[in-house]
Fold this sequence. Notes:
Radius of gyration: 19 Å
CATH architecture: 5 Propeller
Order of helices and strands: EEEEEEEEEEEEEEEEEEHEEEH
CATH superfamily: Glycosyl hydrolase domain, family 43
Helix content: under 10%
Distance between the termini: 22 Å
Structural class: mainly beta
Number of helices: 2
Largest sheet: 5 strands, antiparallel
Strand content: 35-45%
Amino acid sequence: MTTFRKQLFRRYEGNPILTPRDWPYTVNGVFNPGVAVDPDGSTVLLVRVEDRSGVSHLTVARSRDGFTDWNVDPHPSFKPDLDLFEEAWGIEDPRITRVGDEYLITYTGFSRGGPLVCLAATRDFRSFERRAVLMSPEDKDAALFPTRFDGRWALIHRPVTSGNYRVGTHIWISWSPDLRHWGDHAVLIHARQGAWWDADRVGLGPPPLPTDQGWLVLFHGVKTTAAGAIYRSGLALLGQDDPGSVLARSTEWIFGPEADYERTGDVPDVVFPTGWLLEPDGDTVRMYYGAADTSVAVASAGLSELLAFVHDHCVCGGSHQRGEPCPAAAGGPTRDG
């Protein structure tokens, strides 16, 4: 078995890269950004910004190298429409998927009925078009795949079961011919039970990342302790042609709160990845995440190491053949829980 360091992602030494002090207007916290690459190669972050009223909006920040010298829009870039039922209490946690020359943005609308999944689109991150409500309350942590499968779009998302996290809150996949009508809903990754890091509640991190072995997924698990909840992240691998098939799932978490800016803030002990991209070298994965619901940070890892880890540390203990669905990876009780 391959030996790895405790955490595969290496934090940027200049973290956090964006804090409320970097904003040109008064805010409370900046966190959970979606990420994209401009045609000129610049990194674009669509950052969740919570103002001092408690309501969140989205603001664009740009950088040539993706680490330093961020240019933040002087005003909110995408504001909630408070007259809409689905956005009455704000908009949160965008994930960005590029399809052709358009960027499709799934985000959480904080409605009067609870969180739900909305879709917007942009071509330049200067103007935004609302498209549809994709999933009704309570639902969040959603992202689209950048390609269709047999003519259908696939959405990963996280509904809340019966309004109660403790009965198990799982990651689902749903299908649509037109990005409006959704069906064939199925659980993709179950939350495990017991003392495991991903027991009771799991949710998608960044959009799925295409690799030559399948779609790599980074997902969070929430461990409830006597001192509060701890958010950590682990890996899963989905079938290349059938993303509803889970090929592997890591039994261990690979990234968790460690630095001071991750352990202290509005919500302590939270690392919450919402965007990642593959560098031109074809192996370096750059991951952007919210730290303690207060600031934005970045960490990098090798794609080859991530793929090796999810196989070598699969919940089935390596009992299935690589490239075939793992019978223990998607859900239900396993030898690990």
